[in-house]
Amino acid sequence: MICTEVGELMQRQLDYDLDEHELTMLMTHLSECIACKDLFERLTLLSGSLEQLPRVTPSINIVDSILPELDAIDRQRSSETKRNRYSRMRWMTTAASVAAAAAVVFIMSIGWNGSDSKDNVTYDVALSPETRTANPSDITPMYKSGDGLMDITTSTQSDAGQFSIEPMSSPSELFYNNMNTRDADSVEVHDQAGAKQSRDRVEGSQSIGINDESNDTASDKNDRGSFNNKELTPTNQGIMGIANVTESEEKESANTISSVEQAEQLKNYSPDEQVYILFDGHTIALYETSTNELLRSWEMSVTGTARLTVWDLESESFIYEVTDDKGKNYSFTININEQNE
Amino acid sequence: MVEPELIKSAQSGDREALVTLLREIENHVYRTAYYILNNEQDALDASQEALIRIYTKIDTYEEKAQFKTWVQRIVTNICIDKFRRTKPTVSIEEHELVFQEKSNVEHDVLAAFAMDDIRQAIEQLPEHHRTVVVLRYLQDFSYNEIAASLDLPLNTVKSYLFRARQQLQQLLQDYQKGGVRG
User: Fold this and answer.
1) Which of A42, A109, A332, B40 has the fewest Cβ atoms nearer than 10 Å?
2) B88 with A103: CB under 8 angstroms?
3) How far apart (Å, rounded) are the C-alpha atoms in residues A164 and B149?
4) How would you label B41-64 residue by residue, b for 16+ Cβ within 10 Å and e otherwise?
5) A49 touches chain B (CB under 8 A)
6) B59 shares contact with chain A (CB less than 8 Å)
7) At B125, is the secondary structure helix, strand, or coil?
8) What is the pLDDT of residues B109-132, one digit of tens each?
9) Do A69 and B15 touch (CB under 8 A)?
10) Do the Cβ atoms of A242 and A248 come closer than 8 Å?
11) A164 in helix, strand or coil?
12) Nearest Cα to A108, choosing from A272, A216, A240?
């Protein structure tokens, strides 16, 4: 055995890692090689000294010294939890209000077509059990449930005036469908010109009608099939009822929040809360939540009052709605990862 | 040895259990930091940082790892970061060159090494060598436990430890012969 091979045995012996055979080989070599014997003595002395290094202890109680910081961490976590909860609640309220407002706008626009058109309007709606209610505050926001997502579409084509609310298989499907961008006019939801109503139902969709007896829908839980073929006519009475509730709720809420909360409410957080969007004049700005840094911005193609309709579940795109000064509504989808056109 | 029940309680959100757990590991954390950084104040700073990190990350600890190696991984990482910020990098090759030149040192009869000399010599080691020595001798870790703590292959751990001891005995011999320290 040569000295270089013994080196590893010496080292392993210091860690009590040799078996009996290896130990015998080492000892045999050391009895024959003075250089290795000296080296092993020095290493053994070193190792023994290292084992006897004092088990130093800190001069202060380190845990006590960091307790204030640990308390601060707990407070921060607690406030973050509250903020997240607040943000979600605010998001749900906003989504519910917008959805309700959109429903009101649709229904009113159809209602204003005149008495001769009222009976001709078909409303195809498929809702999950969670969303079957006329109370806007009870409407489940889209990003909370993949089931029962609604694709609200209208067009100025021959079936204008008819709209359908269909279940979507996934949230992203909803948004990517919408991103097959029609031009602004084609997504405009109020255009009644040349409206030709139809009783045709959308094939494959589970449909119900909406009317002022909307409480009926709430009783039909747990049976989606039972929603079929209930074709009903909206009335202004029912519509205004919803609108009044929404308005009063919003006013009450506005009176009780502080200016900080108002500023916070302008932020439309994504479902994952990594980013939020702000509507500022003609610009839509995307900010990072943690740093409040501006990430991207988009110019709006329509002048008017803009508001968020909904984010997708993946926090990759959102739909917003603009109401111009003539009261027309336009809906657009923006994918935050796509380059500006 | 920290009781598994205490760890579970701490992970489930029991703050008192978590603080108790920190108190149990405080000295171990400090000892590693002290010998890697060789400075009391730096060791206190690193220990505080490590304990805070453990406090905030306790939920990420998984039972498949030993708790003590998980803790030592945190503290050694913090120490190595501090070490890199404050010390110029010393290459292993540089050390080896020195040792090759003096590899045929005559054999003196050695007394016990002075503790201060040992600490001085440890300070001369490259960061990973130093860390391996500290875990082996100040935490009584096995090769496998060191490997788990530092996320290094077992053979690398042995290699670092063997080289470190070789370097240390050389440095200490130099000190005893009145060589330059530090």
Assistant:
1) B40
2) no
3) 60
4) ebbbbbbbbbbbebbeebeebeee
5) yes
6) no
7) coil
8) 445 678 888 988 999 999 999 999
9) no
10) no
11) strand
12) A240
Domains for chain B: give ranges and CATH numbers: 4-86 (1.10.1740.10), 92-176 (1.10.10.10)
Q: How many residues does chain B have?
A: 182
Contacts of B51 in chain A (CB under 8 A): 62-63, 66
Q: Helix B15-37 crosses helix B67-86 at what angle (to 10 degrees)?
A: 50
> Nearest C-alpha of chain A: how many angstroms from B85?
23
Return the structure tokens found at B100. Answer: 């090759």
Nearest CA to A46 out of B100, B45, B164 is that of B164
- Backbone dihedral angles phi then psi of residue B179, each to the nearest 5 degrees: -70, 175
Q: Could you report the per-residue pLDDT of A13-51, keeping only the tens digit for each?
A: 999 999 999 999 999 999 999 999 999 999 999 999 999
10 Å CB burial of residue A238 (0-12, 13-18, 19+) is buried
Inform me whether the pLDDT recorded for B5 exceeds 50: yes
Q: Specify the pLDDT at position B88.
A: 55
Integer angstrom CA distances of residue B79 from A268, B17, B38, B91, B112: 42, 26, 10, 18, 29
DSSP string, B155-175: HHHHHHHHHHHHHHHHHHHHH
CB B141 within 8 A of CB A51: no
Q: Are A329 and A189 in contact (CB under 8 A)?
A: yes
**Diameter over CA atoms, chain A:** 116
Q: Which tokens in the block code for residue A88?
A: 């979600």
CA-CA distance, B10 to B7, in Å (whole number)?
5
Per residue in A129-188, pLDDT tens?
A: 443 434 444 433 343 333 333 333 333 343 433 443 444 444 333 333 343 333 333 333
Q: What is the DSSP string of A44-81?
A: HHHHHHHHTS-----SS-HHHHHHHHHHHHHHHHHHHH
